[in-house]
Amino acid sequence: MLRTPFGKLLLALALALFLFLQYSLWVGEGGVRDVQALKHSVAALSAENEKLAERNRVLEAEVKDLKNGLEAVEEHSRLDLGMVRDNETFYLVTGNPDAKKTAPAAP
What we know:
mainly alpha
């Protein structure tokens, strides 16, 4: 059959169709490259979602603590607002405790 012109034409068409399908599989839209890129994007977004879910869990625990306990409210007011209780003395220490004290240079 390959000896006839019709057989050669049929073989050429089959080869052309095969090459076109291979090109579509590897390079075309929805091909292997696109699938790999989408898998990479999904992995990156999943990692980001995990970070955000952990942050949401921490914030949710903090909200529950603020709603139920007075200790958290007191801690926030002391740290953020500098509040003190009655009969307490507030000391503000300034300066760097690690800094070496040097004697002033003699004139």
